[in-house]
Write a structure and sequence with these properties.
The structure holds two protein chains of two kinds. Chain A is α+β, with helices and mostly antiparallel strands. Chain A is 10% helix and 16% strand. Chain A is elongated and about 55 Å long. The chains are: A alpha+beta, B alpha/beta.
Amino acid sequence: MIPKSEAELSWRDINAGGIVIEAGSASQYRTGAWRSRRPVIDQEKCTRCGLCYIYCPEGSIVHDKDGHFDVDLYYCKGCGICAEECAPRSIRMEEEEG
Amino acid sequence: MSRVGMEVSVAIGEAVRLCDVDVVAAYPITPQTHIVEHIADLVANSKLEAAFIPVESEHSALSSCLGASAAGARTFTATAGQGLELMHEVVYVASSMQLPVVMAVANRALSSPLSVWGDHSDVMAVRDTGWIQIFTENGQEVVDQVICAFRIAEDQRVLLPVMIHLDGFHLSHMIEPIDLPEKEEVEGFLPPYRYPNPLDPARPVSMGCFAPPVIYPEMKKAQEEHLRASKAIILECWEEFYRSSGRRYQPVETYHTDGARTLLLLMGSFAETAMAAVDEMEGIGVVRIRLWRPFPFEELYDAVKDADTLIVLDRAISFGGPGGPVASEVRAALFGKEKRPRIASIISGLGGRDISIENFKEIIRRGVAMANEGIEASEIMGVRE
């Protein structure tokens, strides 16, 4: 809930009702830590169709200025939906190390 | 102030009007009482300027109350029995989010078999939900405690939801003489509600966040410490109420306990019959727990420490457990004390079954015998064998 320093907080530091005064703090939560497999995009095979961007339930596919799609590994939970939906089969799931 | 005869449920509605609530959300049909029916009338007739939201279930009723309270609205709801069960998930959320909703609960038995009548089964199912919980015995007490509940709940040092328990039918549907205070008196006693960080688009905050294991235990310890600390402010409120009304409320109430060797302990409106019963007996006192949560450990010990026998009457069963739920708590509270009474646990008055003065005398006689024989298991009395 209080992403940067939650491991250091005492119970005495908790705001009434657990309210987080800083809005939008969920964006700091690294859901990527949950991932056991990561999507890897083969940019040669990718047709820039954007299906991965549309299907990603976490908004973790980013679209750069040149029209390339890439994965934001800070948030990507490794669900594999992008690889499943990719029409030209240009996304493969690789095991995370460690 | 004038004394008027009215149904207790209607009197609660009048107390809610005097407290000038902003939002009432309630499921309007069974197992609802006349509490919200009367509030709906007050709103429809412009006697109370509030939003009345007739929602589709009790789960939604309390959820709506949480949203309103978080936005800074003084919020009330009422339910009973099955309705409280259907609310259950949100009952925990209210206290964890520290939203000071006030809720009247007309205590009722639970299905199955279907029973709309009164007992404390519904209370025991929400015992550990983190709300401040207060028991009442008559209509005047309910009115007084509803007014006090808003002040306690909304105190900036508390900010916790408060449940006011009243026995279904045996109290909720009685017509009793009620002293209703004047609006100005209530305004003088109850400051305006100010939630410290309300929902406000100009100052966004996050409420009810996700908490992984790295922070959840800290949040629960904070909640527990906070509920326990609220007792001092509850006592302060009741003292202030006594100064303005002349009616004194205490976490544990006693009747003829001085010098009594045998005490009967119970909660709720049946205590009035119990007191009438001990008036016809010698050397028996009555102890009533008013403040069910946070539990009044010191006051309970002070009230019972000099007695030989303490008979605890429960109107609920902890099925397959250590006995009546109140008896278990009282045993736990006194465990380890060098000087303490022997405890007998009796369960009676389930599903609206009356306990008469004669029944109370039988309960007391049986309780004394159980204590003398060292019987620790609960006994269910007043059922056909």
